[in-house]
Amino acid sequence: xxxxxxxxxxxxxxxxxxxxxxxxxxxxxxxxxxxxxxxxxxxxxxxxxxxxxxxxxxxxxxxxxxxxxxxxxxxxxxxxxxxxx
Amino acid sequence: xxxxxxxxxxxxxxxxxxxxxxxxxxxxxxxxxxxxxxxxxxxxxxxxxxxxxxxxxxxxxxxxxxxxxxxxxxxxxxxxxxxxxxxxxxxxxxxxxxxxxxxxxxxxxxxxxxxxxxxxxxxxxxxxxxxxxxxxxxxxxxxxxxxxxxxxxxxxxxxxxxxxxxxxxxxxxxxxxxxxxxxxxxxxxxxxxxxxxxxxxxxxxxxxxxxxxxxxxxxxxxxxxxxxxxxxxxxxxxxxxxxxxxxxxxxxxxxxxxxxxxxxxxxxxxxxxxxxxxxxxxxxxxxxxxxxxxxxxxxxxxxxxxxxxxxxxxxxxxxxxxxxxxxxxxxxxxxxxxxxxxxxxxxxxxxxxxxxxxxxxxxxxxxxxxxxxxxxxxxxxxxxxxxxxxxxxxxxxxxxxxxxxxxxxxxxxxxxxxxxxxxxxxxxxxxxxxxxxxxxxxxxxxxxxxxxxxxxxxxxxxxxxxxxxxxxxxxxxxxxxxxxxxxxxxxxxxxxxxxxxxxxxxxxxxxxxxxxxxxxxxxxxxxxxxxxxxxxxxxxxxxxxxxxxxxxxxxxxxxxxxxxxxxxxxxxxxxxxxxxxxxxxxxxxxxxxxxxxxxxxxxxxxxxxxxxxxxxxxxxxxxxxxxxxxxxxxxxxxxxxxxxxxxxxxxxxxxx
Lengths: 85, 656
Prior knowledge:
The structure holds two protein chains of two kinds.
Chain A (H helix, E strand, L loop, with lengths): L2 H12 L21 H15 L10 H4 L2 H18 L1
Chain B lengths: L1 E7 L4 H14 L7 E6 L3 E7 L12 E2 L5 E9 L2 H10 L9 H12 L9 E9 L4 E6 L8 E5 L2 E5 L2 H4 L11 H10 L13 E2 L4 E5 L5 E5 L14 H19 L6 E4 L4 H13 L5 E7 L7 H11 L2 E7 L1 H15 L8 H13 L4 E3 L4 H4 L4 H13 L19 H4 L3 H8 L14 H14 L5 H4 L4 H7 L9 H18 L1 H9 L4 E3 L5 H10 L2 H4 E2 L2 E2 L1 H6 L6 H5 L20 H6 L2 H7 L4 H13 L5 H21 L14 E5 L1
Parallel strand pairs in B: 2-20, 13-14, 13-16, 14-15, 16-17
Antiparallel strand pairs in B: 1-3, 1-9, 2-3, 4-5, 5-6, 6-7, 7-11, 8-9, 8-10, 11-12, 18-19
């Protein structure tokens, strides 16, 4: 499944907000789509699902602020990891 | 100490006597010793008494020497002895040794301005039979409750809302605006209650209703802080604090029955025990609760204090099952949805006290509010520090020191800390800055769960209720004073002293006394202590810790603040939970009350059942939801307990 869709599904499952109102560029934390606990669960989900370790240095707002941003980050990390093998 | 109730200006005179009897019956657990009613053409007022001062002759209702004013009241006036002396000097002749008579005599001389002379905790009702006027008053911080309903010139009042519902013409509705407040602020904002058209006299206020039925509410005392706090040095502050606290404890030991103390093992209750022993060296009875779960248990510290002061201690170990079993009863007594299970152990504790034959306990509430003991104060200090350099990676790390017992915060990096604590980080000029995170967390989940059918509450902003109550000089105070005011007037008065305090102890006829809430001490701490004597960096209650340095075991002084929390929520939806809980959370009953959105609730419950653990907010909302459903079942559907309601003992009726 496309990364974007998978992440969107995960957020729908864990959010207390009606996600139909939001597109993939919506700001997750500013709009209150996920709270802090939801964010932690998201990190864990991404690490497990894509078998990557999210580095401290990567913990920047721009990498996680929207579904599109997260998707970009994950895609980038996966191709990076592939190249390193 | 008692329960009071009354109705004035209602047409059916004979019926009124019966109704007031029923009102008193419904709260007779507050006053098991004796009861009395004053009944006249215009007014019927009554009291169920827990006899503590002047057991023999301090019966209520009581009049002043002219017979014009009649009083029923719940509480104690601790400086009654000194006030009595003043009145004796003015030639007043007393018929009893009670504090009750002191109040009504003072009122006959000074009217409402007598309230400023009273040092105590009280809910007072005085009927003026000459002018056909009723006077209702409540103590400065809301230790004792007083509710009323007023329509068409007729007013009914009572210590608890369940008594008001004994009045046939008072209808029962849960207020949805109130629910929104409760879910956000953990309590309604005064004068609101959980029920429509039922209000409380706000702390520090009194009400006067005239024979025409017109009434007004006036304030005699306000919780306030100085703009420029006159700075005592640490040592001078300690001396003054000690002087005030010593006298506060001394006068609160006045009783014709034994006085015991609650002992949690924390700094505040240990301080109380220390002071009591300093004043009275005879053996002190102390009481505490222990929890099955280690995370919440403080027994180790309690044992140290018990040993240090050689108290005669009784304790009860509470299991999750105890909490579940006693939860509905606690809700019934609290008369408001609750967001945590903390009141339940307090209910069980007061039952233990009662079974040991004790009527009065000294307890340490108030110190955290006065001396910045809570984490929320530290949190706001750090946020402000962080806000002055928002991109700093290091400033937010201070937040980890606040919550060493929460792993996901301890292991968090700045981005994660920002999602937790960065909400509106830079809005430092917002008057509610200190409480924004807490309120926002609750609000989001509340909006999700509450039924969207509730149109009139959709756009209701509960913050507007607080704005109405903000003192005019609020904006001139420093940030810590603002945070303290919010915590004290909303959380302490509205929840801690009521749902977790008076309601839980009086359910078992136990009167709590709060030395830290002596108004002289409150005024001193608010107006004379600079912030760093309260919160020195991140060292909370600095002054109290320095003061008690050589008086308490060092382990008590060194303890990190362990907020009193009670074990929680998972057990309410586990397999094997009593049917009653399954029933109140069932689709059918959710639909019946119409308060919660059925789909949201289903999804929420499924999510929780599959979760390894709940977040703090999820726990709170689950308990809020369960207690709201239970409250509806008990009060609206009237499926409640009769077991606790006794007859009226030694009922004395005074007909006028």
